[in-house]
Design brief:
Mean pLDDT: 94
Radius of gyration: 18 Å
Helix content: 40-55%
Structural class: alpha/beta
Strand order of the largest sheet: 3-2-1-4-5-6-7
Shape: globular
Distance between the termini: 58 Å
Oligomer: single chain
Strand content: 5-15%
Order of helices and strands: EHEHEHEHEHEHHHE
Number of strands: 7
Low-confidence stretches: none
Largest sheet: 7 strands, parallel
């Protein structure tokens, strides 16, 4: 199998980090299959990179199996699973709508589990890799974000468990924890913050990144480069790890921010 072109399957590959990862892995020489619930964006990405698009809801077991089966039919193998599909909802633990809470868990947690279970035999055969797109929300909580924070925190536990269980078969499993990334999802949050603060979107965006050492959001391509590393041979001795790409936010001691302007 080493003589063949490597193959990657990306869930949620139509926009944002997923689309950027499809472009990056294609440039790295992979054959790429992108999945998503909407045909138009995933077909656009697949057409651009010469890949293949599969309409699939990652929270549905039958759809996950269909995506893997289509990948094997098209390319004969699977080397990398990028579990990227995710959703969010707002609300504190005391207030969040239970239907929305369960939907976030079904997509963000169950969806990763189902995608891995559908892929595992093919990944064992190729001694492949799984990269789970978590978040810095797995490491620290923001206000009124309980469902998303809980789901992303759960993913780190799942990654560790998968690494232990699949390591003897040669399958590596790691997570990427991005901070603020300039995507459609973050754009929605910028707009909501701007409305709440009665300020422009640019001002709201500046407020969101003002305490990051790099003072900016990531471009999706920057996160894709981290995913490429975790998916490829340069990270061959890494499994069960969480790589943080957050512009330095997790390095900041929030209790000392009051000293920041003292010079």
């Amino acid at each position: 199998m080493d003589e063949e072109k490597r193959v990657a399957l990306i869930t949620g590959g139509g926009t944002g980090i997923g689309a950027a990862t499809a472009q990056r892995l294609s440039a790295d020489g992979y054959q790429v299959v992108v999945t998503g619930r909407r045909m138009e964006p995933i077909e656009a990405v697949a057409s651009e990179i010469g890949g293949h698009a599969v309409v699939s809801d990652t929270s549905r077991e039958i759809d996950c199996h269909k995506a893997v089966e289509t990948t094997l039919e098209q390319f004969g193998r699977l080397d990398v699973l990028i579990a990227n599909a995710g959703v969010e909802t707002f609300g504190s633990a005391a207030e969040v709508d239970l239907t929305e809470w369960r939907h976030v868990m079904e997509v963000n947690v169950d969806g990763v589990l189902l995608a891995v279970r559908a892929s595992v035999e093919a990944l064992k055969e190729s001694r492949g890799a799984v990269v789970v797109v978590a978040s810095v929300a797995a490491l620290a909580a923001g206000p009124s974000f309980s469902a998303y924070v809980t789901s992303k925190t759960a993913l780190l536990g799942l990654v560790r468990s998968l690494a232990v269980d699949l390591g003897p078969s040669g399958v590596r499993v790691n997570a990427i924890c991005p901070g603020w990334v300039a995507t459609e999802m973050s754009d929605r949050e910028v707009i909501e913050l701007g409305r709440a603060l009665e300020c422009s979107d640019d001002s709201a965006r500046e407020r969101l990144v003002q305490h990051l050492p790099l003072n900016r959001m990531a471009d999706p391509a920057e996160i894709a480069s981290c995913i490429s590393f975790l998916a490829g041979p340069d990270s061959s001795f890494m499994t069960g790890s969480a790589l943080i790409a957050d512009g330095g936010g997790s390095a900041v001691d929030v209790g000392t921010l009051a000293y920041r302007d003292l010079g």
